Amino acid sequence: MQLKEIYKPVKKELEEVEKVLEVSLKDSKNESVRRINSFLLESPGKRLRPAMLILSAKAASGKSRAAVSRQLINIAAAIELIHTASLIHDDVIDHSVFRHHNPTVNSKWGEDASIALGDYLYSLAFKLIATCNNMDILDCISSATKSMCEGELTQIVERDNLSLLEERYIMIIKKKTASLFAASCQAGAILSKSPRVLEIALKQYGLNFGTAFQIIDDYRDIAAPKARLGKSPGQDIAVGEMTLPLLNLLRSVNQDKRCRLENLLKSKTNDCLKKIKLELINSDAIARTKKITLPYLNSAKDRLKSLSESEYRQSLTDLVDVVLKSDVWKS
Fold it and tell me: Cβ distance 136 to 190 under 8 Å?
């Protein structure tokens, strides 16, 4: 199933989100700023987080065709701006030159402009959030943004730590990635004025989904080809970030081979990725990684059982199924 099909129940709302994003990004009177912002609109991502926010709001409302508010659209756009800002900063930190099959902002305008642009997008996001005059929403999203920054900082500090514990890795990705998924779903519940039990259920759905999403993304960075990724593979290895597939690979071999693999990871040579990918495919690290990932996806689906049946709940379920049935493990 394609995302386009899953998004179908909220297609009109996502079109409204695009309008808000376009207005926000083209609002500057400075031509140079507008030019860079227009570049962002030319290569949109999956819009997964705003879609999950709107789906969560409607699923939590319990109505088959729940009404949509301007607040909901603005917050969904704000979530996407925060996500985009984090990606721009990520690309600077990782020295990336491609994303979504297009040049990154830092490869076109340099690191200084990219850092400033990321900050600018954060400001646009919180300006939209302020229009809602809702302290619960502000606390939800600002807490997630803080967690994202903490996760990014911790990940950088832990670079080249070949003894990184699995538990610490999970903590990092929950903060860096899953926290915004969780906030997206929780914010949707808050805006629909849902009972606290549904708010918590949707937050946990997003947290578990986001954790699995990042583990799989980390695996794809090693195993998937550039054509599928839309960017150069092996970026985590290049900057020394120890992801779960790599940790599982080191755990799956004897001490002598582990030493050789550690030396290979430290070398960061041009053929490092090719050799690590071959070792990964010929080990049981893929199976171990999948075994750790599946409970998060199953837990995400379980959290949806507290919601009434609707096309919106079904779409949230379908999102999990898309990941569960992904052929990423066959890369």
Answer: yes
Q: Cα(29)–Cα(33) distance, rounded to whole angstroms?
A: 8
The count of other CB atoms within 10 Å of the CB of residue 55 is 28
Instruction: Tell me which long-range contacts 160-169 makes (C-beta under 8 A, separation of at least 24).
Output: 160/240, 160/242, 160/266, 161/242, 162/242, 162/250, 162/262, 162/265, 162/266, 164/242, 164/247, 166/244, 166/247, 166/292, 169/242, 169/243, 169/244, 169/247
Q: Which residues contact 25 (CB under 8 A, 6 or more apart)?
A: 34, 37, 38, 40, 41, 124
In this structure, what DSSP letter does residue 309 have? Answer: P
Tens of pLDDT, residues 160-185: 999 999 999 999 999 999 999 999 99
Q: pTM of the prediction? A: 0.95
Instruction: Write the CA distances from 209 to 62, 131, 214, 248, 302, integer angstroms.
Output: 22, 29, 9, 21, 11
DSSP H helix total and E strand total for the chain: 18, 2
In 224-254, alpha helices (H): 226-229, 235-239, 244-251
The CB-side HSE value for 56 (13 A sphere, CA atoms) comes to: 35
Tell me the one-letter amino acid at 74: N
pLDDT, tens only, 195-234? 999 999 999 999 999 999 999 999 999 988 888 888 888 9
How many other C-beta atoms lie within 10 A of the C-beta of residue 282? 11
